[in-house]
Design goal:
This protein is mainly alpha-helical and about 150 residues long. About 50% of the residues lie in helices and about 5% in strands. It has two domains: about 30 residues, no CATH class; about 90 residues, no CATH class.
Length: about 150
C-alpha cells in the first residue's frame, strides 16, 4: 500500500498543508478523484501451495573423526579395550582428554595436550579445507562419496 499523497492531489496543490487537508477530507467536493476504471479486473482463484521442507543431507566429517580416534588411541586405550580391561582403557581415554589420572591422582598438561591435540588438529584442518572449497568437490561425486567431507 502506497504512502503519501496521491499524484492527482500533488499536481493540483503541490506538497503543502492544503494538499494534506484535501487528502484527509476526500468526501468534500473540492477533490475530484478518478472515476471507475474502464478495464475489468479478473479475480483469479489462488491455490495454497505447501512449502516443502528440505533437509540437508548428512555428511561425515572425516578429519575430526580421525582425530577423535587418534586421541583415544594416544595412550594405547584400544589395546586395553581389546584385552577386556575396560576400566584401565576408560581411565587412559579420560586422562588423555582431561589430563587428570585417577590411578596416579595428578594432573599432567602434557598428557592432556597429547590427547586433545589430534582432535584440535583434525577440526582445524577440516575448517581450513572447507574454507578452501575442497568439500565442494566431494559434493559433486556419486552417491556414497558425496557424503564424505574432509
Amino acid at each position: 500500500m502506497g504512502k503519501g499523497l496521491p499524484s492527482g492531489i500533488v499536481k493540483r496543490y503541490g506538497i503543502s498543508k492544503d494538499a494534506w487537508k484535501v487528502f484527509r477530507d476526500r468526501n468534500k467536493k473540492t477533490y475530484k478523484g478518478r472515476g471507475p476504471s474502464k478495464t475489468s479486473v479478473k479475480k483469479v482463484s489462488r491455490r495454497y501451495r505447501r512449502k516443502r521442507r528440505r533437509r540437508r543431507t548428512r555428511t561425515i566429517p572425516v578429519l575430526p573423526i580421525a582425530g577423535f580416534a587418534a586421541s583415544t588411541n594416544a595412550w594405547g586405550a584400544w589395546g586395553n579395550f581389546a584385552a577386556g580391561d575396560f576400566g584401565s582403557g576408560l581411565e587412559k581415554v579420560f586422562a588423555g582428554w582431561t589430563g587428570y589420572s585417577f590411578k596416579q591422582g595428578d594432573f599432567d598438561f602434557a598428557r592432556m595436550a597429547h590427547g586433545l591435540l589430534p582432535i584440535a588438529l583434525g577440526v582445524l584442518v577440516h575448517k581450513g579445507l572447507n574454507f578452501l572449497g575442497v568439500n565442494r568437490v566431494f559434493s559433486g561425486l556419486p552417491s556414497p562419496f558425496n557424503r564424505v567431507r574432509l
